[in-house]
Amino acid sequence: MHNIYIELIITNWCNKRCQYCDLDFSHKSFSYSNLDKFIEFLKNNKANYTINFFGWEPLLEFDKLKYFLENSKSYVNKYSIWTNWILLNKTKILYLIKNKVSIYLSVDNVKKWADIDLSFLSHYKNDIKINFINDPDYLDNSIQVFEDIKMHWFKNISFMPVFSTKKWSTSSLYKLWNIYKYIKSNSDDMNIIFFKYFNWVSIDKQFILDTDLYFYSDLDSLLWLQKQYKNINLALKEEINKKTTLFSLLDKEIDLEKLLKLYNIEDLLKLIFLIPKSQGVLSENSIIDNILNWW
Fold first, then answer.
1. 184-226 pLDDT per residue, tens
2. Domain ranges, ordered by start, for the chain
3. pLDDT tens figures, 55-114
4. CATH of 3-291 given 3.90.105.10, 1.20.5.170, 3.20.20.70, 3.30.450.20
5. What is the number of other CB atoms lying within 10 angstroms of the CB of residue 14?
6. Cβ neighbourhood burial of 203 (10 Å; 0-12, 13-18, 19+)
7. CA–CA dist 168, 180 (Å, integer)
8. Closest residue by Cα to residue 157 from 119, 135, 189
9. Cα–Cα distance between 7 and 10 in angstroms, integer?
10. Which of 48, 103, 55 is nearest to 78 (CA)?
């Protein structure tokens, strides 16, 4: 049976505007009837599904998230959510834990955790994984943020440099190298994952279902997210659309086998390198990957 990972963009609205975010916001969200269509697709196309609630801020549509969870359990193996902490409360956290949804909390080095209620979140430290996002303009804060994470006993951390929306200078790359060395030497009892730009193809098939009900083939979210960024030129966005849009959830002939056959790895890998090269950032992303022990 196929292993299928789908990132469900339940809404493309957000309650924050992060320093490094370059995404366009709109008030598009899944309707209940369209969630039913997705659940019907899962029911009719058996696979080992992992569904990640992802995108802008999925907790803005918590009632729809609950609806999807409660009606898709028979067809989905695992769930996860990427969220900022703002809308989390005890009721929501306990609900997610009870329903075996892995919680990934996105925090950054911009405000040094000034807007994060660590005393509240630390009660659930064993059930929360930290996505630690590093903006190149605020790297002087990064080690202190990391120490705050350690102090509150969060053990599972994904270290994520900002790749696609901010430029990295020689100075910022040097600082990143020193931060990486510091974390590597001060994390013996922690589970640290270092995210690289040029991730290779996953064993599992990965897709995104966006608010317009289109599936996209996906390499660790990279291509689909690239299409959203303002700094990507129109010609490349059109190329991404042409190469990665597979079909609509509204297509009456939609099925899993059709999706898998149209998963064109070769074309997608070319785009992975074409996009940064056209923006003049191929070398800096390669350097970041090298810093994060890619080679």
1. 999 888 899 888 877 655 667 888 999 889 988 876 667 777 7
2. 3-291
3. 899 999 999 999 999 999 999 999 999 998 889 999 999 999 999 999 999 989 998 777
4. 3.20.20.70
5. 17
6. exposed
7. 15
8. 189
9. 9
10. 48
